[in-house]
# Entry
Amino acid sequence: MLYRVLADVTAGLHFAFVAYVVVGGFLAWRWPRTIWLHLAAVGWGFSTVLIGIDCPLTYVEDWARERAGQAGLPPSGFIDHYITGVIYPRELLDEVRVGVAVCVVASWIGLAWVVRRRASRSATAGTVSGMSR
# Structure
C-alpha cells in the first residue's frame, strides 16, 4: 500500500512539474524572482525531451509501482504514458511541443514587459515624489 501511495504522489508531482514548465513563466509575472526556478525547470524539462535524459521522478514512480505489484511505466516514460495520446492525439506531438515552447517564450517576453513597466512606474513615482518636496 505504501509503495502505491508513493507512486501516485510521485505521478502527481510529475504532473505538477510538467505544468510548471509550461506555465511557470506566467507565475513569474506576479513573482519575478521565481523566473530562476522556471529557467531551471525548463532546462531540465526540455533536456528530458530533446536529449533523452532520464527523469528521476519517472524512475521513482516506476520503482514504486513495481514494488506495489503494478505494471511499471513503459520505457518511453511518463509523458508518453500519461499525456501523449491521452490529453492530445499522438499525431499532434510535434505541434504540442512547438506550442509548449511558444508558451514558455511568450511568458518570458511578457515577464520582460511586466518588469520594464514596473521599473518605469517606479522611476516615474520617484521623480514625481521628488518634485513635490
In short: Helices lie at 2-30, 35-50, 56-67, 78-82, 93-131. Residues 2-131 form one domain. The radius of gyration is 20 Å.
